[in-house]
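Whether sequence alone determines local backbone shape is best considered at the level of individual chains. When preparing material for the folding task, we compiled for one chain both its residues and its backbone structure tokens. No coordinates are needed to read the tokens, only the vocabulary itself. For completeness, the protein is quoted in full, as a sequence line and a line of structure tokens:
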Amino acid sequence: MGRKSLKDTRRQEIIQMFYQVAKKEGLENTSIAKIAVVMAINPSLIMHYFQTRDDLISGLIDFMLDKYQLIFDIATQRHDTPEAVLLKVIDRLFSKDWNHLFDDGLFYSCYSLTFRNAVIQEKYKTMLDSLRHKLARLIQDCANAGALQTADAYQTADLIFVLVDGAYYYLSLVSDKTEYEQKLGQYKQQALTLLDPSKALNGPVIPADRP
């Protein structure tokens, strides 16, 4: 493989710093000038790689969406069954470790731009559709192996991601650690039930205690 160009390397450095500054200051309060100060460079150098702040935001969104794809970056063994692989992904989906791959506040700030920017809207939709198709393939593999029964693997995957998206949006408002863990476990159990109502892939039963 060829070496990355200096331009690609420097662009990535700028985007990563943009992420760090925006995570601390908020997207709306982060300017090219602020990024330049933190990087100890002239703002014109940033403008050399990103002509406008919108170009920089577009790069930031690509950076975060790439992190989102790490849902499926799990450790698997050669002897793992389709069911074992799927359960690892479900564990990953409903895990604080995955949720901490990127900053929620910054993610939702960028997501809000989808309502008025068609390019950003398409970036998010393409990524979310890709995640659904990947999960659907894992579900279908399990169905083919007889590990679960599902009439429509893609519809099941879609519903699970609807649950995931709603869960993390709501949980971003929950500050109590015990409540957070309890609800995350309940949401995971619901996902397992969606996969196979008859046995929920033999997943652990999470107590649904109510406050």
In short: Confidence is low (pLDDT under 50) at residues 203-211.
